[in-house]
Amino acid sequence: MASCHVCGKRKMVGNNVSHANNKSKRWYHPNLQKIRAVTDSGPRRVNVCTRCIRSGKIKKAI
């Protein structure tokens, strides 16, 4: 299963709730982007959520 390389965010489970209060399971997926980033073992492609990219928690490789 794909998850964020920085924060470990992955898909979450929740409920679709209708007007009649019927509930069915659904998935919430994080917005993961495959980017080339600098890691401890050099530059490589990793899955990172857009929150971590925007907040500057990862450094992009050129």
Key traits:
mainly beta, 10% helix, Ribosomal Protein L24e, Chain: T, single chain, 62 residues
Provide an overview of this structure.
The protein is mostly beta strands and 62 residues long. It has one domain: Ribosomal Protein L24e, Chain: T (Roll), CATH 2.30.170. Helix content is 10%, strand content 45%. The protein is built from one helix and four strands; from the N terminus they run ββββα. It has one helix spanning 50-55; strands at residues 12-17, 23-28, 32-39, 42-49. The strands form two sheets. Strands 1-2 form a two-stranded antiparallel ribbon. The chain is elongated and about 50 Å long.
Write the layout of secondary structure elements.
Elements: E1 12-17, E2 23-28, E3 32-39, E4 42-49, H1 50-55
Antiparallel strand pairs: 1-2, 3-4
**Fraction in beta strands:** over 45%
| SSE succession | EEEEH
Total tally of structural domains:
1
Please provide the count of β strands: 4
Distance between the termini: 27 Å
The CATH architecture is Roll
* Alpha-carbon Rg, integer: 16 Å
Number of helices: 1
Name the quaternary structure.
Answer: single chain
**Structural class estimated from helices and strands:** mainly beta
The largest pleated sheet is described as: 2 strands, antiparallel
Q: What is the averaged pLDDT score? A: 95
| Morphology call | elongated
Query: Helical proportion?
Result: under 10%
CATH class: Mainly Beta
Strand adjacency order, main sheet: 1-2
According to CATH, the fold-level topology is: Ribosomal Protein L24e, Chain: T
Unreliable runs: none
